[in-house]
Each structure stands twice: as C-alpha cells, then as structure tokens.
Design goal:
126 residues, mainly beta, Immunoglobulin-like, six-stranded mixed beta sheet, 0% helix, 47% strand, Lipoprotein
C-alpha cells in the first residue's frame, strides 16, 4: 500500500543528484544506516524495515524490523520514537552491482496494512 511517506535518507552519504544516489560498494561500511523521516502518519505500535526492489508490495529483499515506539510506564501507553534508523547490510546491495535499485522503508502493524515510502534510487558501483 503506497502512502505519502517521504523517501528514506542515508546517513553519511552525499545527497542524491538527479534523484539518484551513487554508492561505491568498495567504500561502504558493512552496514548502511537508513534514516526513516519523522512523520505523524505512522503509529507508535508499528514496526519498520528497509526493502529493496521496484515493487513495494513484493520487495526483492527485506531487512530486520525495528519498533516505531517504546512502552512508557509513566503514561501507560506506547510513545512514538523519533530519529528511527533501519540497517541495510552491504551484502544486500551486491546483487545490484552496476545497476540501479530502489530503497524504501515499509511498515507493519497488527492489521494487514503494510504501507511503504517513496523510493530512493541508488546506483551501485564497484
């Protein structure tokens, strides 16, 4: 389910030129940090994970889930987290060497709704 979530950003990577980020695989750390932009459109009881591929409904690769909130005993409810980061292992990019791939983040909640973000296009080079 495509919603209007902003595209992810990569920590420690230069901003996209022409809406495409070029990544030098040999220069990357073992794990890329993907920033999930803060938004009022997702709930504190969801989880989020990185996905690769042109189809957000059926991604080619899925990362590990991260919670979007934490339990607050004082308030007795879930508190939404900010500055959420998901991880993208370098080896997940290997199959895309010398071509472009779309990176998104995708949410999961208790219902069957699994909205995902706009893509960040990446060109993977050696």
């Amino acid at each position: 389910m495509s919603m209007h979530f902003a595209a992810p950003t990569l920590t420690h990577v230069a901003p996209a030129q022409d809406d495409c980020v070029t990544l030098q695989l040999s220069q990357l750390p073992d794990t890329l940090t993907v920033q999930v932009p803060d938004s009022s459109d997702f709930a504190a009881n969801w989880s989020v994970y990185a996905i690769l591929g042109s189809d957000g409904e059926e991604p080619e690769w899925e990362g590990d889930e991260v919670d979007t909130g934490a339990w607050d005993d004082a308030e007795d409810e879930m508190e939404k987290l900010f500055d959420i980061e998901v991880r993208l292992p370098k080896e997940a990019l290997q199959p895309y060497l010398n071509r472009e791939v779309e990176l998104r983040y995708k949410f999961r909640d208790e219902s069957s709704m699994e909205p995902y973000s706009q893509p960040l296009r990446m060109r993977i080079e050696p």
